[in-house]
Amino acid sequence: MAGGGEGGELQLLGAWLSPWVIRVKVALQMKGLSYEYIEENLQHKSELLLSSNPVHKKVPVLIHAGRPVCESLVVLEYVDEAWAGAGTPLLPADPYDRAVARFWATYVNDTFFPSWRPLFRATTAEQRAEAFENVLPQVETLERALTECSKGKAFFGGDAVGIVDLALGSFVVWIRAVDELGGTNLLDEARVPGLAAWAERFMAVDAVEEVMPEAGRIMEHYKGFLAKLAAPAGSS
Q1: What is the CATH number of the domain that holds 114?
Q2: Are 228 and 222 a contacting pair, CB within 8 Å?
Q3: Distance CA 53, CA 23 (A)
Q4: Distance CA 17, CA 23 (A)
Q5: Domain with 38 in it: what CATH number?
Q6: Mean pLDDT over all residues of the chain?
Q7: What does the pLDDT look like over 10-30, one tens digit per residue?
Q8: CB burial class (10 A; 0-12, 13-18, 19+) of residue 45?
Q9: How far is the C-alpha of 210 from the C-alpha of 161, rounded, in Å?
C-alpha cells in the first residue's frame, strides 16, 4: 500500500472474516494508506483491543497515532476526513447527499443486517424459507435506495464506491456463501436487477479485489459455523 498516514502511524485491529473489518480495509486501500494489520482472536481478545475499545470490545478499531477510533461507519467517516485529499472521497460533498448516504449506511447496519442474520444462522429448510421471506423487503428497499443514491450511475456513491457501497458491499461475499449453501438467491437479477448488477461491479473494483477474503475460505468457515449451530447441545 502507498504512503503512510499523516501525523502518525496507523494500526487496524480486525478479524479477517468480519464484514465490518472488510469495509474499513477497502476504504484504507481506496485512500492508498499503509497500516499495520493486527488479526484479533475474538475468543481471546488482546489487551490492546480491550483497552482501545472498552465500551464494545469489538473490531474494527483503527489506531491513528496512538488514538483509537471505533465502530466501522465512524472509522470510515474518520478516514474520509483525516485524509480528505487522498484517493476517492467516501462521502458526497453536498450536505444533503451526505445525510442521505449516512442514512443508508446506517440502514445496512441497523435494519438490513439484523433481518439477514436469521438467514445466515438458519440450519433447516423451514428456518431458511422463513428467514429468506423476512429479509426480502429490506433488499427491495435497498434496490430503491440504489436508484436514489446513484442517480443512474454505477454505485451508491455515483461514479465511484462510497460509504453505502462499502457498508453493503462488505456483506456480498457472505451473502453469496449463504445463498450457495442454502440454495437461496438474495440478489436475484429478476427481483433486484440493480443490486445484482451493482454487486458484480463492486466485487470487481481493484481495491475490493485486493482485500476481500477468498470466497472458498469464507465458505469453509461458514460450513463449520453451521455445523456447530446444528450440533446437539453438549456435543464437542
Answers
A1: 1.20.1050.10
A2: no
A3: 18
A4: 11
A5: 3.40.30.10
A6: 95
A7: 999 999 999 999 999 999 999
A8: middle
A9: 15
Which letter does DSSP use for residue 18 in this model?
A: -
Examine the domain organization and report whether 212 and 156 are in the same domain.
yes
Instruction: Assess whether 134 and 50 both reside in one domain.
Output: no
Same domain, 59 and 114: no
Amino acid identity for residue 63 in this structure: I
| Same domain flag for 50 and 138 | no
Give yes or no for residue 5 having a pLDDT over 90: no
Q: Which of residues 82, 107, 131 is at a domain's end? A: 82
Q: Quick one: 76 and 176 in the same domain?
A: no
Question: What does residue 36 show for φ and ψ, rounded to 5 degrees?
Answer: -95, 125
CA 75 remoteness from chain centre: 12
Specify burial of residue 94 (Cβ count, 10 A radius: 0-12, 13-18, 19+): exposed
Domains contained in the chain, number: 2
Whole-number Å distance between alpha carbons of 20 and 24: 7
Pairing of strands 67-70, 61-64: antiparallel
pLDDT score of 2 = 36
